[in-house]
Write a structure and sequence with these properties.
Length: 315
């Protein structure tokens, strides 16, 4: 799978391509169904599939305070897309200049002249171009004159509802990790690099691996039974605190701290993936480190039991 960073790196697809446009946050089963449908058509036409993404996502650019927490960062998204029959990801930098492109320019300059689009799939509520003047109907009309066909991302339903990134975020926020797993098609996880912390956990007998996520907000918060992958090809169980650490922190940026069971290695700098199994409790502030230590002990015992009894826990 090729990653094309910006229009300047696009070498036009000589025979054309099939493409879909979206945030693909979480790369959930609905997204996978879109790509699978494209793959069926691509096989008949003998053409490659391209996924068009924006960084930052449009809402993050225009109204960052209203943007929801991401399910996946760009790197995680790419890793998930690489497992699908996608030939290229076109990453478009969403900045002020890009936001000034008219809908007509977007169709002509990007879809037609750069990608030689033959078939496009977008949501029927997709809006694009300066002032969000472009819509599904405009794309449909352009396809008639520019020689490409258009489909909408048909709803993919589970549990009687349309699978969506919003629905998965709501499930995670309400601690329904089983529903999130069903809709994602995999256990919810986050990835990041282990960095040095303030060593407060170590001082009370519960050393933690601090995961740098480069996110201002997270889709989950609280204390969870988890497993970690990325160290010596092992799956290591543990207990994680996700939040702002009200007892020892300063209420700043959210952080994931994982205490790994029966583990004692120097793993600073390692890039790891943390899988969330079940929520144990909400994050809380304690009056003393002694009270915090006692509660972490209880949390660790609970987390061990959860991971040991969860079906397919060590994945």
């Amino acid at each position: 799978m090729r990653i094309i960073r910006g229009l300047g790196q696009v070498r036009p697809f000589k025979k054309g391509c099939l493409a879909t446009i979206g945030n693909f946050d979480g790369v959930h089963l609905g997204h996978r169904a879109v790509v699978d449908n494209l793959a069926t058509r691509a096989q008949v036409l003998g053409l490659p599939i391209a996924v068009i993404l924006f960084e930052p996502q449009p809402l993050e650019f225009f109204q960052p305070s209203k943007a929801p927490p991401r399910l996946t960062r760009f790197r995680e998204k790419i890793l998930q897309l690489a497992e699908l029959p996608v030939d290229a990801v076109l990453l478009l930098r969403f900045n002020r200049k890009f936001a000034e492109l008219t809908a007509g320019q977007f169709i002509r300059d990007i879809l037609v002249e750069r990608l030689h689009i033959r078939h496009l799939v977008v949501g029927d509520d997709f809006r694009f171009g300066k002032g969000r003047h472009g819509d599904y109907r405009m794309l449909k009309e352009a396809g008639l004159t520019q020689g490409f066909t258009l489909d909408d991302t048909a709803s993919f339903e589970m549990d009687g509802s349309r699978v969506s990134s919003t629905g998965i975020r709501e499930a995670l926020q309400s601690a329904d990790l089983e529903k999130a797993e069903r809709w994602l098609g995999r256990r919810y996880s986050v990835c990041g690099r282990i960095i040095h912390g303030n060593k407060k956990g170590q001082s009370i007998g519960f050393p933690t691996a601090n995961i740098q996520l480069h996110r201002k907000t997270l889709a989950v918060q609280g204390v969870f039974a988890v497993t970690m992958k990325g160290i010596d090809n092992k799956i290591i169980p543990g207990v994680a605190n996700v939040g702002i650490r009200p007892t020892v922190g300063d209420g700043g940026e959210a952080l994931v701290e994982v205490h790994l069971f029966d583990f004692n290695q120097d793993i600073y700098g390692a890039y790891v993936e943390v899988f969330f199994h079940r929520k144990i409790r909400d994050e809380m502030k304690f009056d003393s480190f002694a009270a915090l230590k006692k509660q972490i002990g209880h949390d660790a015992t609970t987390a061990r039991e959860i991971v040991q009894t969860t079906k397919n826990a060590l994945i």
